[in-house]
Design a protein that fits this description.
With about 270 residues, the chain is α+β, with helices and mostly antiparallel strands. The protein has 2 domains: about 170 residues, Jelly Rolls (Sandwich), CATH 2.60.120.10; about 80 residues, Winged helix-like DNA-binding domain superfamily/Winged helix DNA-binding domain (Arc Repressor Mutant, subunit A), CATH 1.10.10. About 35% of the residues lie in helices and about 20% in strands. The protein is built from 9 helices and 11 strands. The strands form 3 sheets. A 4-stranded antiparallel sheet has the order 1-8-3-6. A 4-stranded antiparallel sheet has the order 2-7-4-5. A 3-stranded antiparallel sheet has the order 9-11-10. Helix 6 packs across helix 9.
Length: about 270
């Protein structure tokens, strides 16, 4: 997801979040459904509040009910499923999407490790979109009733949940700006800059990435036809801005991408 499209300044924030329906007993008893300690997780700084005491960390450890492994192409939750939990992504990438009236899937966001999905279910206790794994993934299941209970006792957790919700609102505004006022080149440039920034926050390269989503899915999210996405990638290659080898992208000129999104004002 384009989190606020902050490259109209020079930043992009990263947002998180998936949730799912209650696990079945088979899922709870599966060897794949293992307890995980947040205090020892290398993604803790991305999806948990900072500055917690040892006692507060131990209490949040108890918040995570289990881990679930989701195979590529499998939905973590579907539109209409009962909302019970939020999900913190440990590994893998998800897309969220909704079905249009003509039966097409409209992609509404992409989420990666350290991000949380499932916030859509809070409003009416049912999910309003599908969350589908784009590669084999693993999530931490956090029952929402426990989050509410613990938030009343740990102020930092309550504040963190509010920040996550606020980021979703800002992201929605950013997407509206993206679709309403940007040309195709600006949309794709902003998408690539945002994606590589989020990956870099997780320890990956600042200039190279492997797309887990198809060009058709990128086009659905950016409001562009598949042909336009392919043509825009080709233009970036011709201009020497990026190098493309199937799904592997190497950004050769980050400043050029930023200038596409934030053109210099001629005085």
């Amino acid at each position: 997801m384009l989190d606020a499209i902050k490259y109209r300044g020079d930043n992009a924030s990263h947002a998180l979040a998936p949730e799912a329906q209650a696990p079945t007993q088979a899922q709870r008893m599966s060897p794949q459904s293992l307890k995980v300690a947040c205090s020892n997780c290398n993604l803790r700084e991305l999806c948990m509040p900072l500055g917690l005491s040892t006692d507060e960390l131990n209490r949040i450890d108890d918040l995570v009910a289990l881990r679930r492994k989701i195979k590529r192409g499998v939905a973590l939750f579907r539109n209409g499923d009962t909302f019970t939990s939020l999900f913190a992504i440990r590994t893998g990438v998800f897309k969220t999407c909704v079905a249009t009236e003509d039966g097409r899937d409209q992609v509404t966001g992409f989420q990666m490790a350290g991000e949380i999905i499932g916030l859509d279910g809070i409003v009416n206790d049912h999910h309003t979109c599908d969350a589908v794994a784009l590669e084999d993934a693993e999530v931490c299941v956090m029952p929402f009733n426990r989050i509410e209970e613990l938030s009343r006792e740990v102020n930092a957790l309550q504040h963190h949940v509010h920040k996550i919700m606020s980021r979703e609102i800002v992201r929605e505004h950013g997407v509206m700006l993206l679709l309403g006022s940007m040309r195709a080149e600006e949309r794709l440039a902003a998408f690539l800059l945002n994606l590589v920034q989020r990956l870099h926050a997780r320890g990956f390269s600042q200039s190279e990435l492997t797309l887990r989503m198809t060009r058709e899915e990128i086009g659905s999210y950016l409001g562009m036809k598949l042909e336009t996405v392919s043509r825009t990638f080709s233009k970036f290659v011709e201009d020497g801005t990026v190098e493309v080898k199937q799904r592997h992208i190497r950004i050769l000129n980050t400043d050029a991408l930023k200038r596409i999104v934030n053109p210099q004002v001629c005085l």
